[in-house]
Amino acid sequence: LQKIILDKARFQVQFTKGKFSREGNESVEFYISTNPGEPPKPIGKIASGGELSRIMLSLKNVIAEGDRVGTLIFDEVDTGVSGRAAQKIGRKLKQASAGRQIICVTHLAQVAAFADTHLLIAKIVRDGRTFTTVNALPQEERVQELARIMGGENLTPTVLASARELILQAKENDNGR
Fold first, then answer.
1. pLDDT tens, 58-81?
2. Are 77 and 54 in contact (CB under 8 A)?
3. How many Å apart are CA 54 and CA 80, to the nearest integer?
4. Percentage of residues of the chain with pLDDT beyond 70
5. Can you tell me the mean pLDDT for 87-100?
6. What is the b/e burial string over 50-73, where b = at least 16 CB atoms within 10 angstroms of the residue's CB?
7. Is the pLDDT of residue 110 over 50?
8. CB 3.0-4.6 Å disulfide test: which of 16, 44, 86, 145 passes with 108?
9. What single DSSP character describes residue 38?
C-alpha cells in the first residue's frame, strides 16, 4: 500500500482455486496487516472504518494510475481518522488530483484545506419542502466554513486564524510537492 496512507501496512491478495463455474474457478480475498509483527488477515474481518477508507484511497489511486481514470470520487474517505491522518489523506488526495479531477465529501477541515475548490452542500427548508443547495465558496467563506468545521458555530478570531493557517499549510505543502 502507498506508504503515506498506511505507513507500516502489509497487503496481500490471495487467490483460491475452486470448481469451474460461470464466474470462473478462483476467488480473491484481500489480506492486510496494519501493525508490525502481526500476520496479514482478511480485510473484512480486521480493518476499522478508518483503515478501510485509507485502503480504498490507496487502491483507487493505484487503479486510476493504470486506467487513466479522469475523475475519482471519495465519500468520507477520512471517516474515523485522527487529525494527523486526515492531513496525510488530504495531501494524498491533492497529489492524486495532479492528473485527474477529485471529488471528495469530507467533514474534516484538514482534508478540505487541500481543495482547489470548496463546495458547500446544505439542506434548506422552504415552503415546507427540503432542498439541497450546492455553492462554491469564495476564499473568506471557505475560511469561515473550515473554522465552523473545526470549532462549531462560535467563530472566534482564534478558530478563524487556525482555518487560515490550515489553508496556508496545505498550499505550502502543495508548492513543495
1. 777 777 777 777 888 888 788 878
2. yes
3. 10
4. 92
5. 87
6. bbbbbbebbebbeebeeeeeeebe
7. yes
8. 86
9. P
Give SS3 for 39: coil
For the entire predicted model, the pTM comes to 0.73
Element (H, E) at 99: none
Joined grid coordinates for residue 108? 474534516
Query: Which residues have a Cβ under 8 Å from the Cβ of 2 and sit 6 or more positions away?
Result: 58, 61, 62, 92
CB 132 within 8 A of CB 120: no
Report the candidate in 40, 54, 52 with the shortest Cα–Cα distance to residue 5.
54
CA distance 89 to 57: 8
For residues 117 and 75, what is the distance between their CA atoms, to the nearest angstrom? 16
Non-local (6+) Cβ contacts of 3 within 8 A are none
Residue type, 103: I
Residue 4 has pLDDT above 50, yes or no: no
Q: Where are the alpha helices (DSSP H) in the chain?
A: 43-46, 49-67, 83-96, 109-112, 139-151, 157-175
Nearest to 77 by CA among 61, 98, 57: 57
Cα–chain center distance at 73: 9
